[in-house]
Amino acid sequence: MVRRAFPRAEQKIIFASEGSFMKTDIVIIGAGPAGIFTAIELIKKGSKQHIVIVEKGKAIEERHCPKEKTKKCVNCKPYCHITTGFSGAGAFSDGKLSLSCEVGGDLPSLIGETLAQETIDYTDKIYLEFGADPHIEGLGNKEEVKNIRRRAIKAGLRLVDCPIRHLGTEKAQGLYYAIEKYLLENGVEMLFGYECSNIILNGDECDGVYITNGKETKEIHAKTTVIATGRRGAEWLESVCAEHDIAHIPGTVDIGVRVEVRNEIMEKVNEVLYESKLIGYPQPFKNKVRTFCQNPGGFVSQENYDNDLAVVNGHSYKELKSDNTNLAILVSHNFNHPFNQPIAYAQKVGELTNMLAAGHILVQRFGDILDGKRTWPKELAQSNVRPTLPDAVAGDITAAMPYRAMINIINFIQAMDEVVPGFASSETLLYSPELKFYSNRIKMDEHFNTNVRGLHCLGDSSGWTRGLMMASVMGVLMGREIAERELGKIPE
After folding, report:
1. Domain range for residue 299?
2. Based on C-alpha coordinates, what's the Rg of the chain?
């Protein structure tokens, strides 16, 4: 983790008479990409409405991970600084912007592929305005791409073309700090250290939110309420939907592993595509299995969620490089009636894995999985692939991973070996658990209206997006909707 020092941005939050009541035009819950891009677009459209953003974590200039010094996770309380704070998980992620509407969730099915792609292109320009690297990965090398695609087809996999703009973990922090300052300078008020406990309902209309810092509860009344709490807030939003009959359905839950190999194995794919987005439906179960979040020369990382749940992720810096490439392999699970708790299901898988690793991330060599044995620390020390997550615990991930998911992962890795020779090496490392909590899907129309007037849900917590770019796109479109209502172009 690379920490950058930034001066503290000026901000001012005023509650009526220093009390517990505040009135505003727009309240946004969550300062991740969806929430902050809603505010950016409102400003760009010349909106005069007062905007308040409520964020559980800290301002970006105050976010840091103690692991920089301790070299191991210390389970920060009351939340993990990697996942929570201004810009959400984006500040400390690998910082990749997927520039194709084929990647990033199901938002195109709601708004149309044409609008989705147009808004990606527009949003990308905003990222460039705030300092994103102008270089785009994955362009050119058409013949090499054809060769990779040919091998993928032979292996029964589909290669998705997706240009990537790589921000870099350490560079992303500076970019989002510039956005934070821009919002504050344009009158957006930010309330850090508070989380939303519930929404305020007046009949079938949302009248704002209750927020708390653990010591006191305040009310923010607003004409428009936007909930954009990210993957971390998906479970909470699911409970709010159940309590207030906000229309929603169980969505897809992703369970998988993070794979780590030497850079030499992924060298050609890294050079040509930077990120190989591959999809397959391996026998015998034919679940959708995909690669996600590839980090050339990157580092495997740990994130902590509520109830001390430790999950694995990956970071990729612009300048700091390792000898390894890591990527996620995720298995999509769709559940049918009567089961309606996919998030809880994924959490149980994670909890069981954490139990085996004494609260840490579990790592195992692929060859040991095939041989039906656990991995021992001394075996990791003897391998060509040295773990970039130093406090990962060597063990047996198959003791916690559901059979269906494990078989899918094994068969997908073996198919990947035809695309990337050496990928299924006995020394390839698998880290667990890799879980994506965005399975609850809010029912909305193309204008992001829920069945509760005045309430809108965005980003990964809504179940419609996956990743930085598509969440940002959803925010941009929400900002336009609110601005057009303000100008009377569309009805309230």
Report:
1. 142-162+252-436
2. 22
CATH number for the domain spanning 192: value is 3.50.50.60
Q: What's the chain's average pLDDT?
A: 91
Paired tokens of 292: 């996600």
Domain match, 194 and 207 both: yes
pTM of structure: 0.86
Q: At 32, which amino acid appears? A: G
- 């058409």: which residue's tokens? 142
Q: Which of 373, 372, 375, 294 is nearest to 330 (CA)?
A: 294
Which of 90-99, 161-170, 198-207, 472-481 is the least confident region? 90-99
How many Å apart are CA 126 and CA 107, to the nearest integer? 20
Q: By the 8 A CB rule, do 42 and 94 touch?
A: no
- pLDDT of 376 above 80: yes
Hunting for tokens 């503290």 — which residue is that? 8
- pLDDT for 476 equals 98
Contact 104, 469 (CB under 8 A): yes
My answer on whether 303 and 201 are in the same domain is: no
Q: Which two tokens stand for residue 261?
A: 């190999």
CB 221 within 8 A of CB 22: yes
Look up residue 407 and give its two tokens.
């078989």
- Please give the pLDDT value at position 123: 98
Buried-state track 23-50, b at ≥16 Cβ within 10 A, e below 16 = ebbbbbbbbbbbbbbbbbbbbeeebebe
191 and 55 in a common domain: yes
Three-state DSSP at 298 gives coil
